[in-house]
Design the sequence.
C-alpha cells in the first residue's frame, strides 16, 4: 500500500458535498447562479482529480493514495480508500462526465434546478466513493447512496413514465444489493477474519462450494447493474425516462459499477468460482452482444436504441474480463471508459435534438445534416467511435477484447466478432434515418445548429475519442501492472483452492481406505 | 530520404485537418480549399517519388526499410506500432495511389466547382488518400487494417456525399456493412496470426511462417484474409455494394471505386504472398473466385444503359483478373494489372464524368450518341482507355492482361479452364466497352433538345488530367513487356524481392515438381516451347477481343437500333435476368437483410417485451400480491392480535395435551 501524504482521495470524493452545502444557501430563484456554482464545483472537482492521474505510480500494483482510519472498531469496519490502475480511470471518468452533464443540463432542466444540481453533486460523491472504497461496508454504503439521487433524477425530472421507470430501476438494484449484503455478511462471519477490509479478505481462501454461492450472490447484484442479459430490461425504461444528464451518468458511470464490481470484488474474492463459471458468464456476455445489437436495430426511439446498444457494448466488457488474459482484461477496462465516453456522448447528442424537437422518435427526423452541419460532424464521429472504427477509442477496446477472447477460446472470439457487423448495421441505419435523406418534416427545416455551450460540451469528448484511439499507451501504461497483478492473483489463488479441494478429496479417500483396512483387519 | 517515408501519408492528413477544421470553420474560399487539397497531394506524390529514388539506390537486402513512429496498442505480449515500410511493393502502390489521386484531385476541382459542399468533398478526399497510403505503407497487419477500414469509411462518406438522395445514403450504408462482413473475416484472420505468431509485424510473420504454421493453419488464415478481400475488392459473393457505389460523385468512383481502394485486396494478397503460397487450397479458391467474378461481372455489363454502371461491372470484372493472377501465384502480374487498370479505369470514369458534364448530368447512353465531334478530347482519351482495357496490342492493358492469361495457363497453380474463362471474359470486355463507345460517341445524337444546345467540352482543369491518364494508359505497359515480345519485364524483376520469382521461374518449377528434377535442367528448351505457346495464346486473346469489337460494331453501328431490339425480343428472359443483375440484390435482401430484421423484430417484440420483461414484472406482481395477502392479517387492531394469540395458544395446548 502506498499511503497518501495528503488526503487527496477524501478531498476528491467529498468535494462535491461542499458544492451541495453552498447550493443550500442560495436562493431557489437564482437559477443562473445555481448553475454556475454547480458547474464551477464540478470543474474544480475534475481539476483536483487530475493529480491522481499524473501522480499515479505506474510501476506498482499496490493501492495508492491510500487513507485508512478505523471507523467502527468492534466490527472491523474502517474508512479505507485507495485506487489502483483500474479504479483510477473510473474516478477520472466520473469527474469528467459530471462536468459535461451539468453543462448539458443548462437549458434542458427548467424546474427545481437547485434540487437537481444538488442531486447531481450528491450522486458524484456516491459514485466516487464506490470506486475508491476498499472496505466492503464503506463500499456498500456508497453503493446505496448513489441509488437515491439517481432515483430522484429519473423520478422527478424524467419523462411521462418516470415513476414506473424510477421504481423499476430502484427495485432491480435493490434486489441485487440485498443478495450482495447477505454475501458480505457471510464473508465476514465465515472467514473469521472479523474484518471488512477488502485487501485482508482477498487473502482468505474459501472452500469451493462456498465460493460458488458467494460469487453467485455478488455476480447477480453486479450483473443487474451492468446490465447483463437477461437482467437488462430495467435499462431501456430508465434511459428513456431519465433526463439527458441522468442518462449520461447512468450509462457512463453507473453501469460501470457493475463491471467494476466484478473486477474489484466478485472475481478476486472468489477467483476459483469465477474461473469455473467463466463459460456461463462468457455465454451470457455473447448473448448480450448479439441480442443487444439485434434488438437495438428495431428500436424506433433513439434513446432506447442507444440503451440496447449499451447492452451490446457491455457484453464486450464482460467477455474481455472473463478471458483472463492481458488483452482481454485491459481491453475490458478500456471499453468501460470508451462506453462511458461514446455512449455518454450519444445520450448528449440525443438530448440536444430532443431539446429542439421534443421528440426522440427516429421517424420524426431525417435530413438534419443539411440544417445542422456542425452537429452532424460530432454525431458522425461519435457514431464511428461506437462502431469501433480504427483510429477511435472504440476500436482499441473492442479489438483487444476480441483478441483476448479468441486467445482464450476461439469460438467466443468468433461469435463476439459478429457484433462488429451488427454494430455497424444498426448504428449506420439509425444515423442515416436521422441525418440523411431529404427533410420530410417541416419543423426540422428551422432547427438551429449547436450553440457554443453545446460545442464545448462535445469537443472534450471528441478529443478523448481520438486521443484514446491514436495513443492508447498513455492509458495502458498506467493500468498494465494492476491488470497483470489481477490476472496473476486470480490464477494463483484459484490454483490454491483447487489444490485444497483435491487435498480434501484425497484425505477423504484416505480416511475411507484406512477405515476399510481397519474393518478388514478386524 | 527513406526515413521520411511518413511524409507521404502526412501531407494528405495535413490537408484533411486544414480543410476539415480551419476551412470549414471560416468558410474558406473554394480557391483556398482546392489549393490546400491539391498541394497536399502534390507534395505527397513528390515525397513518394523521392523515397522511391532513394530506395533504388540501396540494395534489396536492406529492404524492407522500416520506420516506426510510435507504439500504438500495447497490451501484454501484444505490441503494435504505427510504422511504415519501404520496399518495392509498397512503393509501387504509393506511387500509383498518390499519383492517380493527385490527378483526380485536380480534375475534381473542375468537376465539383458548382457544388455547395466543395470543402466537405475535399476534406473527405484527402482523408481517403491518407488512409489508402497508410494501408499500402503499413509495416504490420493492424495498421494495414486501420487503413483498410479507414478507406471503407471514406468510401461510405463519399458514396453518400449527396446524402439528401436516399439512393446515395442507402448505397453508402450498404457499402460499409458489406465491407464489414468481409472485415469480420479479416479480423479473424488477424486473430489467428496473433495467436500463432505473437506479432502483427509483416517481416516477422512472413519470416517465421514456414516453420511456425502448417498448411491447414495457413489455409485457414489465408481464407479468412481473402474473405476480407472479397468485401473490399468487390468479388463474389460480396461484390453487391460496388454497382450501387456509383451514387457518389464521378471522380470518387474513379479514385476509390476503380483506381485505388478496391484494389486493396489484391495488394493485401501480394503482400501476404508467403502465407498464400503455403496454402494451395486457398490459392485455388482465389483464382477460381477471380475467374468467375471476371466473367460473371462482364456479363452484367452487357445490357446496362447507365454508363457508370457499365464501368462499375467492368471494374469488378477486371478485379477478378487481378485475383486470378495472384491466385495462380503470379503476384507481380496482379500488381501490374492493378497499376495499368488504375490508369485506364480511372481515365474511363473521369471520361464518363466529362460526358456527364457535357450533357448536364445525363448518364443514360440511350440519350447520348454522336459526341465524338463535340467533345473531342474526352473522346480520344476515352477511346485510348477503351483500347487499353480491351487488350488492344501494345496498349498498357494488353501487356498486363496477357501476362495474367499466360500465367493462368502455364503456372503450376493454373488451369486450362481458368485461362479459357479469362479469354472469354476478355472478349466480353471488348464487347461491352465498344458498345459503350459506339453508343456514346458514334451515330446520331439522341439527347434532348434542351441538353443538346449546351453540349461543350470540359475546361482544361478537367481535360488535362484526362490527357495525363491517357498517356499512361497507352505507355504504362512498357515497364512490363514480356520476354516473349523481346522485353525484359522490368516490373516483374523489380517486385521480385517482395513477391518471389513467380510461378514461371525455374526455381519455382523446381520447387513444385520436386519429383521431376529434370524439369529444371531442361528449363532451356522449356522456355523456347513456352515462347511459341505464349504467342499462340496471345493471338487467341486478341482474336477474342476483336470478335467482341466486331459484334458491338455489328449491333450498335451497322444495324442500330433494329438489331439490338430484335435480340432483346428474342432472348427476353435472359435479357431481363441480366438487366436485373441476376436478382442477386433481391435474393440477398430477402435472405439476409429481411431475415436479420425479422429475427431482430421478433426478438424485441416477442421475447424481450413478452418474456423477459413480463417475467420481471410478474415477479414484482407476486411480491405485491403476497404483500396484499399478508396485509390482511396486519390489521393494526389490538383485539385481532389478542384473538390470534388466543387461537395460537389454544393450538399449542391442543398439540401438547393430545
Sequence:
Amino acid at each position: 500500500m502506498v499511503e497518501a501524504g495528503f488526503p487527496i482521495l477524501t478531498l476528491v470524493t467529498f468535494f462535491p458535498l461542499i458544492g451541495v452545502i453552498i447550493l443550500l444557501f442560495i436562493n431557489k430563484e437564482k437559477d443562473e447562479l445555481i448553475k454556475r456554482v454547480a458547474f464551477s464545483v464540478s470543474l474544480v472537482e475534475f481539476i483536483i482529480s487530475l493529480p491522481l492521474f499524473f501522480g499515479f505510480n505506474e510501476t506498482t500494483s499496490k493501492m495508492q493514495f491510500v487513507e485508512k482510519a478505523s471507523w467502527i472498531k468492534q466490527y472491523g469496519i474502517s474508512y479505507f480508500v485507495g485506487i489502483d490502475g483500474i479504479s483510477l480511470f473510473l474516478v477520472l471518468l466520473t469527474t469528467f462526465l459530471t462536468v459535461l452533464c451539468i453543462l448539458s443540463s443548462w437549458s434542458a432542466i427548467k424546474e427545481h434546478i437547485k434540487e437537481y444540481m444538488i442531486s447531481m453533486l450528491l450522486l458524484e460523491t456516491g459514485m466516487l466513493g464506490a470506486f475508491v472504497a476498499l472496505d466492503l461496508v464503506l463500499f456498500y454504503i456508497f453503493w446505496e447512496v448513489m441509488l437515491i439521487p439517481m432515483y430522484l433524477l429519473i423520478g422527478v425530472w424524467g419523462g411521462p413514465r418516470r415513476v414506473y421507470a424510477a421504481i423499476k430501476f430502484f427495485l432491480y438494484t435493490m434486489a441485487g444489493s440485498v443478495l450482495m449484503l447477505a454475501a458480505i455478511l457471510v464473508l465476514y462471519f465465515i472467514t473469521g477474519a472479523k474484518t471488512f477490509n477488502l485487501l485482508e479478505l482477498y487473502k482468505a481462501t474459501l472452500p469451493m462450494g462456498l465460493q460458488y454461492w458467494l460469487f453467485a450472490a455478488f455476480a447477480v447484484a453486479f450483473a443487474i447493474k451492468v446490465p447483463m442479459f437477461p437482467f437488462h430490461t430495467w435499462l431501456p425504461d430508465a434511459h428513456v425516462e431519465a433526463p439527458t444528464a441522468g442518462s449520461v451518468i447512468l450509462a457512463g458511470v453507473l453501469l460501470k459499477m457493475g463491471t467494476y464490481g466484478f473486477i474489484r470484488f466478485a472475481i478476486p474474492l472468489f477467483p476459483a468460482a469465477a474461473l469455473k463459471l467463466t463459460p456461463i458468464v462468457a455465454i451470457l456476455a455473447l448473448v448480450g452482444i448479439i441480442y443487444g445489437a439485434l434488438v437495438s436495430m428495431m428500436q424506433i426511439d433513439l434513446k432506447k436504441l442507444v440503451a440496447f446498444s449499451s447492452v451490446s457494448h457491455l457484453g464486450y466488457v464482460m467477455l474481455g474480463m472473463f478471458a483472463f488474459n492481458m488483452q482481454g482484461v485491459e481491453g475490458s477496462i478500456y471499453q468501460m471508459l470508451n462506453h462511458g465516453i461514446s455512449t455518454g456522448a450519444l445520450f448528449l447528442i440525443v438530448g440536444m435534438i430532443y431539446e429542439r424537437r421534443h421528440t426522440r422518435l427516429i421517424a420524426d427526423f431525417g435530413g438534419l445534416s443539411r440544417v445542422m452541419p456542425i452537429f452532424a460532424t460530432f454525431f458522425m464521429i461519435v457514431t464511428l467511435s461506437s462502431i469501433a472504427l480504427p483510429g477511435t477509442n472504440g476500436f482499441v477496446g473492442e479489438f483487444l477484447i476480441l483478441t483476448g477472447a479468441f486467445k482464450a477460446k476461439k469460438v467466443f472470439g468468433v461469435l463476439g466478432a459478429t457484433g462488429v457487423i451488427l454494430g455497424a448495421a444498426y448504428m449506420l441505419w439509425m444515423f442515416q434515418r436521422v441525418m440523411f435523406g431529404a427533410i420530410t418534416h417541416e419543423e426540422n427545416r428551422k432547427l438551429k445548429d449547436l450553440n457554443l455551450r453545446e460545442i464545448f460540451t462535445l469537443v472534450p469528448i471528441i478529443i478523448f475519442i481520438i486521443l484514446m484511439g491514436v495513443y492508447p499507451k498513455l492509458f495502458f501504461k498506467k493500468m498494465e501492472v494492476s491488470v497483470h497483478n489481477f490476472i496473476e492473483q486470480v490464477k494463483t489463488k484459484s490454483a490454491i483452492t483447487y489444490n485444497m479441494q483435491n487435498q480434501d478429496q484425497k484425505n477423504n479417500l484416505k480416511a475411507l481406505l484406512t477405515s476399510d483396512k481397519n474393518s478388514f483387519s478386524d | 530520404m527513406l526515413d521520411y517515408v511518413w511524409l507521404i501519408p502526412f501531407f494528405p492528413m495535413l490537408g484533411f485537418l486544414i480543410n476539415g477544421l480551419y476551412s470549414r470553420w471560416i468558410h474558406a474560399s473554394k480557391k483556398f480549399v482546392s489549393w490546400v487539397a491539391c498541394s497536399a497531394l502534390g507534395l505527397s506524390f513528390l515525397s513518394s517519388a523521392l523515397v522511391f529514388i532513394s530506395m533504388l539506390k540501396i540494395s534489396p537486402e536492406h529492404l524492407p526499410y522500416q520506420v516506426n513512429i510510435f507504439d500504438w496498442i500495447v497490451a501484454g505480449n501484444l505490441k503494435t506500432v504505427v510504422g511504415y515500410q519501404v520496399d518495392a511493393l509498397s512503393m509501387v502502390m504509393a506511387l500509383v495511389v498518390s499519383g492517380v489521386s493527385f490527378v483526380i484531385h485536380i480534375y475534381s476541382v473542375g468537376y465539383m466547382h458548382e457544388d455547395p459542399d466543395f470543402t466537405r468533398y475535399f476534406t473527405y478526399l484527402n482523408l481517403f488518400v491518407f488512409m489508402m497510403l497508410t494501408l499500402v505503407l503499413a509495416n504490420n497487419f493492424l495498421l494495414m487494417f486501420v487503413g483498410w477500414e479507414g478507406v471503407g469509411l471514406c468510401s461510405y462518406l463519399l458514396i453518400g456525399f449527396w446524402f439528401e438522395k436516399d439512393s446515395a445514403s442507402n448505397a453508402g450504408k450498404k457499402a460499409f456493412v458489406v465491407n464489414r462482413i468481409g472485415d469480420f473475416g479479416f479480423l479473424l484472420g488477424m486473430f489467428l496470426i496473433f495467436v500463432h505468431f505473437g506479432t502483427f509485424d509483416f517481416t516477422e510473420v512472413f519470416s517465421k511462417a514456414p516453420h511456425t504454421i502448417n498448411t491447414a493453419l495457413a489455409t485457414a488464415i489465408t481464407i479468412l484474409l481473402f474473405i476480407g478481400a472479397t468485401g473490399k475488392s468487390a468479388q463474389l459473393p460480396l461484390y453487391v455494394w460496388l454497382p450501387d457505389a456509383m451514387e457518389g460523385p464521378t471522380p470518387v468512383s474513379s479514385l476509390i471505386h476503380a483506381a485505388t481502394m478496391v484494389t486493396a485486396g489484391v495488394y493485401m494478397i501480394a503482400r501476404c504472398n508467403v502465407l498464400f503460397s503455403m496454402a494451395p487450397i486457398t490459392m485455388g479458391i482465389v483464382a477460381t473466385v477471380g475467374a468467375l467474378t471476371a466473367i460473371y461481372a462482364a456479363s452484367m455489363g452487357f445490357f446496362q444503359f447507365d454508363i457508370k454502371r457499365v464501368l462499375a461491372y467492368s471494374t469488378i470484372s477486371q478485379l477478378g483478373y487481378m485475383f486470378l493472377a495472384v491466385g495462380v501465384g503470379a503476384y507481380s502480374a496482379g500488381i501490374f494489372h492493378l497499376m495499368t487498370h488504375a490508369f485506364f479505369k480511372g481515365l474511363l470514369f473521369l471520361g464518363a464524368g466529362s460526358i456527364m458534364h457535357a450533357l448536364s448530368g445525363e448518364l443514360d447512353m440511350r440519350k447520348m450518341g454522336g459526341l465524338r465531334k463535340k467533345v473531342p478530347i474526352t473522346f480520344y482519351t476515352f477511346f485510348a482507355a477503351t483500347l487499353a482495357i480491351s487488350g488492344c496490342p501494345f496498349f498498357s492493358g494488353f501487356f498486363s492482361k496477357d501476362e495474367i492469361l499466360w500465367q493462368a495457363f502455364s503456372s503450376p497453380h493454373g488451369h486450362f479452364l481458368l485461362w479459357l474463362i479469362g479469354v472469354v471474359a476478355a472478349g466480353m470486355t471488348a464487347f461491352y466497352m465498344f458498345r459503350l463507345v459506339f453508343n456514346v460517341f458514334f451515330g446520331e445524337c439522341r439527347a434532348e433538345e434542351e441538353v443538346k444546345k449546351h453540349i461543350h467540352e470540359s475546361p482544361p482543369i478537367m481535360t488535362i488530367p484526362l490527357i495525363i491518364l491517357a498517356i499512361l494508359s497507352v505507355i504504362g505497359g512498357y515497364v512490363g513487356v514480356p520476354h516473349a515480345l523481346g522485353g525484359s519485364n522490368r516490373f516483374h524483376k523489380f517486385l521480385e524481392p517482395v513477391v518471389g520469382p513467380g510461378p514461371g521461374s525455374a526455381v519455382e518449377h523446381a520447387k513444385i515438381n520436386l519429383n521431376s528434377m529434370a524439369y529444371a535442367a531442361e528449363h532451356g528448351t522449356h522456355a523456347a516451347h513456352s515462347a511459341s505457346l505464349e504467342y499462340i495464346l496471345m493471338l487467341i486473346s486478341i482474336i477474342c477481343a476483336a470478335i467482341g469489337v466486331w459484334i458491338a460494331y455489328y449491333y450498335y453501328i451497322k444495324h442500330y437500333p433494329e438489331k439490338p431490339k430484335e435480340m432483346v425480343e428474342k432472348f427476353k428472359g435472359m435479357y431481363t435476368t441480366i438487366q436485373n443483375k441476376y436478382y442477386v440484390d433481391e435474393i440477398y435482401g430477402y435472405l439476409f437483410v429481411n431475415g436479420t430484421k425479422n429475427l431482430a423484430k421478433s426478438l424485441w417484440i416477442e421475447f424481450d417485451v413478452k418474456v423477459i420483461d413480463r417475467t420481471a414484472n410478474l415477479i414484482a406482481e407476486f411480491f405485491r400480491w403476497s404483500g396484499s395477502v399478508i396485509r390482511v392479517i396486519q390489521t393494526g387492531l389490538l383485539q385481532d392480535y389478542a384473538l390470534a394469540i388466543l387461537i395460537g395458544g389454544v393450538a399449542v395446548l391442543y398439540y401438547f395435551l393430545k
